[in-house]
Amino acid sequence: MAKKSAVNRNERVKKLVKQSAAKRQLLKDIANDESLPLEERFDARLKLAAMPRNSSATRIRNRCEITGRPRAYYRKLKMSRISLRDLGSNGLIPGLVKSSW
């Protein structure tokens, strides 16, 4: 089980990313538009840099929904390999057969 503080921090980051996604995208579009004047594009870059770092989507860490484990994460299932194995062994995941030899 991961530390609750790490899981909660990640949830706060997700919330902040969701709140500021539209503004961040607008500033990125302005900054990357070659048809606009250089000063306006530079001003958009400064505003983008002034935004909180945690409002960037790259700050989100994929974590297991069951345990909060940050590594060995399956995106399709939103869980770690360990949780997948446990639930598969108990027969709680349809279509998954754990082989052993």
UniProtKB/TrEMBL annotation:
Pfam families per the UniProt record, alphabetical: Ribosomal_S14 (PF00253)
Signal peptide: none
Key words, A-Z: Ribonucleoprotein, Ribosomal protein, RNA-binding, rRNA-binding
Molecular-function GO terms, alphabetical: rRNA binding; structural constituent of ribosome
GO biological process entries: translation
Quaternary context: Part of the 30S ribosomal subunit. Contacts proteins S3 and S10.
Record's protein name: Small ribosomal subunit protein uS14
Organism of this sequence: Phenylobacterium soli
